[in-house]
Amino acid sequence: MSVTAVLTTTLVPFASVVSTATVAIWTKRLDAKSKREERIHALVLDYEKRAGEDKKAALKNLISATLRVKRGAEPRAGIEVTEETTGQRRVDALRELYEFRGRLGLDDGIAELMIYASAPVRELTELVLDEWDRQFREHGYSLTQLDACKRQLVKTAADAPPDDLAILSGEEKWDELKQEENLWLQRLGDVSNLDVDALVDLCKQVLRAAHTDLRGGYGIATE
User: Fold this and answer.
1) For residue range 78-105, what is the model confidence (pLDDT) as tens digits?
2) 122, 117, 11: which is closest to 55 by C-alpha?
3) Where does residue 117 fall: left (phi above 0), alpha (psi -120 to 50 degrees), or beta otherwise?
4) Residue 199 domain-assigned?
5) Domain of 118?
6) What would the pLDDT profile of 126-143 be if each residue is shown by its tens digit?
């Protein structure tokens, strides 16, 4: 048998087998790569979905909390604007502003909002939080006393005494605490220089930005 015949009958089938095996290996590698990319893509989609839901919840909390502050600071319809009515607006605004951080979920909720919200929302929310910080620094003692009243009110409500005498006593205690709470709020309104009109305007800006972000108007949040 000639050398050519040997090469034809031996090497050609061998090369064919090697080629087939190589193709099979590369096919498996491509399949594995494709599946890996599909898994990564699925994980990314799942993260984006969860992030979108968390962002929506954070923005809804912000809208709700801001509406409460805005309503507290707004002038009352049909009521003449006087020094006294402006003072009452300041009291009501401080009451709602005091609760603002809590309604956002305190530090954890605020951090979540700052992670997911778009830049305009974050910047405007920071302005509201700055006002909260300023009021607390200037009137920390009054706010601390107010907080103590609120804790006692919650405890009184939770006790829920069963007998009539205890109920009467609980109601009297509740009334006393509410009066004390109102006195501290009134004191805050008297000493605070909170600009209620500017606060209303700021709240409107926050609400517009939050609604825009909720509808995807700012695109993906960036640093």
Assistant:
1) 777 777 788 888 888 988 998 899 999 9
2) 117
3) beta
4) yes
5) 3-139+192-214
6) 999 999 998 878 877 777
